[in-house]
Amino acid sequence: MNSPKSHPLLLGALSLSVFFMSWIILTKAVGTKILPDPFQVIGEIIRLFKTPLSGRTLLEHVLFSLRRVLIAYGLAIVSGLPLGLMMGWSSLCRKIIGPIFEIFRPIPPIAWIPVAILWLGVAEGSKIYICYVGAFIILALNSFTGTRYVEPILINCARVLGANRKRLFLGVAVPAALPSIFAGLQNGMSMAWMCVLAAELVGGREGIGFIIIQGMNLDRPDMILAGMVVIGLLGALMAIVLRILEKVLCPWRRELV
Amino acid sequence: MTTYNPKTVTDQSGSHDPVKVKVRHLTKAYDELLVLNDISFDIRKGELLCIVGPTGCGKTTFLNCLTGFAPLTSGEILIDNEPGNLFRHNIGFVFQEPSTIPWLKVWDNVAFGLKIKKLPPPEVISRVEKMLDTVGLRRFVDYYPRELSASLEQRVALAREFAVKPDLLLMDEPYGQMDIKLRYYLEDEVRRIQMEEGTTVAFVTHNIEEAVYLADRILVLSQKPSTINEEVAIDLPRPRRFDAPEFVAIRNHVTEAIKWW
Ligand SMILES: Nc1ncnc2c1ncn2[C@@H]1O[C@H](COP(=O)(O)OP(=O)(O)OP(=O)(O)O)[C@@H](O)[C@H]1O
Ligand SMILES: [Mg+2]
């Protein structure tokens, strides 16, 4: 007999089949009106692909959400990363920006929804803004800690060899912070997804959050679950893309085989 | 049995060699903790000075004061008769802890200082290649530091510091991680590089045998708050033999001098 250790795929398949079996059994117990089974959910996803909901197919809804997330994420990267790096590197920046940052940091992005709608309306602006706030804080924080806590020995090693401030920053602090920055990129992305859903649940006529809220209004649990599955898949896809990017950009972190 | 009469070096102005590092009334305290207590000595140009002393007596602290990493509490340290300046003085520092650059492969680690100093690329290549052979890292050029053993990793740091041909080389227990064969080999290498390049070397070690083997002079520090217990000039001919009676006598003498218990 083979040990289960040598078959991670087999083990994964086993755990997934147990999960789906339990789901199906649970459906049998409570009825499809409350909990649709996996096949119904897949069927609903396919249906949403073909039949427009509120004038848009599933793909168009996905693209709406994706667009919001990516715009917000891009803005968060170009503003949050430099801010965090500056705060981590320069104690002057840290002293000036730090206290303001500490005030805004603990506010959950979702708490911004009402005021964002008030200021920017229910259209794209407020939704993008909320995603932006969520991703921004995480990106700034991670690039901050990454540069702030660089191993002093690495800095000293470069200093003895005659490196100037610019060289220390670009040649030591930034590469040393890359793993932490990548963790920020990952978590910032999940946060942006979370926020887009929340924003779309509150208001909007398109996006995956809208599908979920429609499912609730129409008393269609299969539609709700379909939306949830789609958002889960998209989030996982993004995470995989980022992980591949990290492997390429931080090759020294690769696991030993 | 051979006994050893130490030539304690007290008169610093009596030497005719030019001075590379001048330490005067160096005192260093971390908050309440007094580590170095009014220490004065010189390191002469081209000299290999070994610094020994009980653990925690402030050997690393001294090197950190010398490079300016740690501010002095009082006193002064001059390099070439001026305050140390890392942009002007060509200093190499082999740290006690691992200090390889994790995101650079071995080759680029060794080239790290040469690139900072903006040497022309052909010179960088030839120096790196030479150093890789010196420390026996040829096979590992494409490895990242985390893929190396502790001894290999330390050799990367050694090669990186040797490569810049420093005129002041600071080594903080550089060979602690290494087996005896490699240590003997690298002890001879550091001596060879020092002779070829005229490097001034400050070499911190716990290994008294190593100190007697390498040093032109040994500085024995006391327990903290540290002062200089003794300076021992060693003029044994080279290559030195560990089992020569004079060698053993000096080793025993230094061992006695270092005892704080
Ligand atoms: N940054 C620091 N802040 C506070 N105390 C420190 C600091 N660095 C060193 N010390 C203290 O100063 C004393 C001397 O430390 P140092 O590292 O210089 O000793 P050392 O002689 O190099 O010891 P070892 O032989 O173990 O390497 C120790 O008691 C240590 O705890
Ligand atoms: Mg030390």
Summarize the structure.
The complex is a heterodimer of chains A (257) and B (261). Chain A is built from 10 helices and no strands.
Description:
The complex is a heterodimer of chains A (257) and B (261). With 257 residues, chain A is mostly helical. Chain A has a domain of 140 residues: MetI-like (MetI-like fold, Orthogonal Bundle), CATH 1.10.3720.10. Chain A is built from ten helices and no strands. With 261 residues, chain B is of the alpha/beta class. Chain B has two domains: 172 residues, Rossmann fold (3-Layer(aba) Sandwich), CATH 3.40.50; 62 residues, no CATH class. Chain B is built from seven helices and ten strands. In chain B, the strands form two sheets. A six-stranded mixed sheet of chain B has the order 6-7-8-3-9-10, sandwiched between helices. In chain B, helix 6 crosses helix 7. The radius of gyration of chain B is 18 Å and the shape is globular. At the A-B interface, helix 7 and helix 8 of A face strand 6 and helix 2 of B. The structure holds adenosine-5'-triphosphate and magnesium ion. The site of adenosine-5'-triphosphate (ATP) has 12 residues of chain B, from strand 2 and helix 1.
Q: What's the helix and strand layout?
A:
The complex is a heterodimer of chains A (257) and B (261).
Chain A: H1 8-30, H2 38-50, H3 58-89, H4 91-104, H5 113-120, H6 124-148, H7 152-160, H8 165-202, H9 208-217, H10 221-249
Helix pairs in contact in A: 2-10, 3-4, 3-6, 3-8, 3-9, 5-6, 6-8, 8-9, 8-10, 9-10
Chain B: E1 19-30, E2 33-44, E3 48-52, H1 59-67, E4 74-79, E5 82-83, E6 91-94, H2 106-116, H3 121-135, H4 150-163, E7 168-172, H5 180-197, E8 200-204, H6 208-214, E9 217-221, E10 228-233, H7 245-258
Parallel strand pairs in B: 3-8, 3-9, 6-7, 7-8
Antiparallel strand pairs in B: 1-2, 1-4, 4-5, 9-10
Bound molecules: adenosine-5'-triphosphate and magnesium ion.
